[in-house]
Specification:
single chain; about 525 residues; alpha/beta; Dipeptide-binding Protein, domain 3; twelve-stranded mixed beta sheet; four-stranded antiparallel beta sheet; globular; disordered N terminus
Amino acid sequence: MAQNEQNNVKMPQIGKSGIGKNLFFVGFIALLVLLGVYLFFGDRLGINWGNGFSNGHTASRGPDEVLTIGYAFEPTSLEPTNFDPVSRSHLVDIYEGLVLTDRNLEVEPGLAVSWGLIDPVTWEFRLRPGVQFHNGKPLTAQDVVYSLDRAVFYENSHLKDILSTVKGIDLVTSDRIRITTKSPDPLLLQKLAVVYIFPDGMVNFDYPIGTGPYKFVSRGDGQLDLERNDDYWGRAPAFAKVELVAEPDRRERLRMLESGEISLLANLPPSAGCSLIPGFNDAEGCEAIQSQEIEITSVPSLEVSFLIFNFDHELFGIRSVREALSHAFDPEVFVDIAFGFAKPADQFVSSGVFGFDPSIPLPDYDINEAKKAISDIVGRSFERTVVTFDYPATLQPIGEYVQLQLGQLDIDVELNPLSDAELQQKIMNRESDFYFLGWRSELGDASDFLAGVAHSQGIFNGANYMNADLDDLIEKSRENLDEEDRLAQMQEAMRTIVNDDILGIPLFESETIFAFRKDIHFIPRVDGYVFASEVS
């Protein structure tokens, strides 16, 4: 299941690869920058050209020191328009976009030094001077046009859906391009941050050529080797050499970490990091790393997991039933399952996502209240009810807990574990009684969750949920260039589906866990990616 391995882990990490490709859907877009019609951003030339993009910690390492980063899987392809986390984790230091995002997903200048809106649907970008590709070729506007064209129009591009608002990309001068959108798009900058730039005419990406702080050297036997780009326009990374090592066996991966063969391990299983959270050292299944040379850290992810009801179901179509069920699940259970690397969720996006509404309260867990409410409804109207719960086969503990809790309400749950593809198809066919869904707001914005799951025409609206006023609100927010007003629209939409209509039950927000040798300096990013250039 993509980058986060599942072996011997009580609670797998939630949230996987690109939208429409795998079950754990990727939502899009980062924290908004302030926009306004005809607003043109400053040139931002205050950057120190000698140092460039700062990683905040710049101590250089010895010329023979190698940074080895461990992963569970290696990419099947190095195609830069792929949007799955395995591919991107291996490419983030090779390629760059017109704009970059820092570890908190704030937009920063990248290969574009300035940009702005000429009119509500026309953006102009001015390129950073003096940038070279790894093959020595200077960066030109034609390279950018070619790269963006491939991202938008290439048949197999994973980025086509993200960039669906783009109408055209045009060359203006040797250092300027324009992007025209079909309608106002307040999220274009965040989308462009995930679009990599490469040389004009490049079609073979087995040997990737970008502008990033590291250059591709070789690939083989589950390992990808990089070396520092001495001609990089920005701040030079600390390590001269980087090895990205894929080891699918969990225990072997942990052994390599403890032995020093791996410097930094991404996506540490919660069962191996349980010593970090007080009270979980002695928990059943805890297999904590023992080495005193290893440091463990975590960061709240962009992932939320929840249950969704089918509004066409005879039981779940009753709002009072959905409300009663919102009190039937103890949020601390999910924290325990994840060895403390999770927290209860009160809505369908995490607290770091634009569109999150802090005014929404966490439902009280009260199984007795839920029993009474369900008894009053079901006892009058139904014989003992049987429902089918669809969920990923890897999340058996979740299925069993849902079955247990609803059983206490005299609702018999038939468990139906499915593969990711099977569950996705059932959701898209709108055939599920109710189901488990994990959503990762990859770039920190609630827009794609609202459009994909809550909108009546959303491709992942397996709930058969329809609310014309909500549809209108979602559609307006997706074209609103006023940040404050757009936030208010999205928060109103979130309150509608959480408090008023009760689309489903938010369960938990997960965390991303890392382990690394104490002789390196590492601060995790909210998006969960490891940039070798940010490690020192």
